[in-house]
Amino acid sequence: MKLVVIPGLNGNDQLCQEFLHHLSIETLFIPLPEDCPQDHSSLADRIAPLLPNEPFVLMVESYAGSIAPYLNAKPDVDLKGIIFFVSLLAAPSKALLELPKFIQADTLMKLPFAEQQLGSNFMNNDGTPEQVKHVRSVIEAIPHHILKARTEALKNLGPFPEQPKIPAAFVEATHDKVLNQRAKDSIASIYLGARKYPMEGSHFLLYTKPKQSAALIKKIIKDINS
After folding, report:
1. Do residues 155 and 138 make contact, with C-beta atoms less than 8 angstroms apart?
2. Which of 165, 154, 222, 161 is nearest to 194 (CA)?
3. pLDDT tens per residue, range 6-57
4. DSSP assignment string, 171-199
């Protein structure tokens, strides 16, 4: 069964190219559109016409998680399962979301010790120095108006449309310092019976552990189809 992947806050494949390479299943990657409102309902409306005209499993990473309930509620979307990857359906730390109001990402990343803080506080020392530099460059490249709009959307999540029953699973990073516990628990509160798959690592699992992430996703798809 085809897998559709929608990325996190950066909206592109810059942090998941190696992960996609390791997937040995037919995969459609859909970047987040920037030429529309950035709330999750509007993004879902733009993404829906790009979805396959056949049964598929949806994988949503981080920020993209809250797009899934809107897609699942559309009657013409042939969705057979949802995988939430280090994702959320409730607002994470409000303090973190307020930062784009006061400082641009490229300015923030140029502050002293920015890379050290990124590597230790958010990547849990899970990445090489080269990987930390790359994550920094990806964050810097997010247009400020897009980053600001997406963080605003995260502060105002839900209520979501009524959900048709569907197999759901969520991958939770054991050392995720981006999502608070409320955000981590939000998926199971909406998708009752969703199966949890813990994985050792930080919020940036797809980037720092691409091969292991791909293997886990293939296992989850097998579990969904069984």
Report:
1. no
2. 165
3. 999 999 999 999 999 999 999 999 999 999 999 999 999 999 999 999 999 9
4. EEETT-SSS-HHHHHHHHHHSTTPEEEEE
- Using DSSP bridges, classify how beta strands 195-199 and 168-173 pair: parallel, antiparallel or unpaired: parallel
Q: How far apart are the first and last CA of the chain?
A: 12
Nearest to 6 by CA among 87, 92, 76: 87
pTM of the complete model: 0.91
Q: How many CB atoms lie within 10 A of CB 151?
A: 20
C-beta separation of 4 from 59 below 8 A = yes
Question: Distance between CA 67 and CA 180 in Å, rounded?
Answer: 19
In angstroms, the CA 222 to CA 226 distance is: 6
